[in-house]
TrEMBL record:
It holds the Pfam family adh_short_C2. This is 3-oxoacyl-[acyl-carrier protein] reductase. Transmembrane segments: none annotated. It comes from Acidiphilium rubrum. GO terms for molecular function: oxidoreductase activity, acting on the CH-OH group of donors, NAD or NADP as acceptor. Belongs to the short-chain dehydrogenases/reductases (SDR) family. Gene3D superfamilies: NAD(P)-binding Rossmann-like Domain.
Amino acid sequence: MRFKDRRVVVMGGSRGIGLAIAKGFAAEGAAVAICARGAEGLEAARKAIGALGGAVFAAPCDLADAAQIAAFIPEAAGALGGMDVLVNNASGFGMTDDETGWDASLRVDIMAIVRASQAAVAFLQADEGGSIINIASISGMRASIRSGPYAAAKAAVINYTASQAAKLARQNIRVNAISPGAIEFPGGVWDKRKHENPKLYETTLASIPFGRLGTAEEIADVALFLASPAARWITGQNIVVDGGQLLS
């Protein structure tokens, strides 16, 4: 129960990596707040997290909308009685190199992190130390012909994480990023590609030395470590969790 009496807010926590992170914190005693756009998925996630025993708050929030983020953060902190950890997880998955792709990446992958973090800082200044975790991607660490806007946005997240860490250290807030490789979960991007673009799926699978795609729970494990006292001297870092995918 590493997180007993701690308060965790996960932006984009109704499925996949976000849900796994929220459940991981709840299983270790934290009170958890999540948001997402879809009401049905949000309610299912709330029940799954609540079944683990801790307090849970869930509310709809479109992370492309600045006003909704500004409203959700204080609402979540109020429901939990404060905030110790903020996890910025959502992505707009802007894959196409056009106005639509760039708009999705800029509004959700970058500006949602900026807005949520700025709104959360006042709640995170605790004696025990606050923690912000930004979910980036290994796509942000190399060139991408297939998904330029997404890769550029994630590169910005990695850079901004370091800037946040330098700025917020004096306020006792640590900031780190996690860069997952290809992660597979039901209904996720790679689950869909397995059926819709099997050639890309198999090529990606072959590029991973461990011979499999990662799981959302494996990203959650790293998030819990980064938010824990065991990582109290770690800030401004980008932790790659990809089974060696970048090595190929």
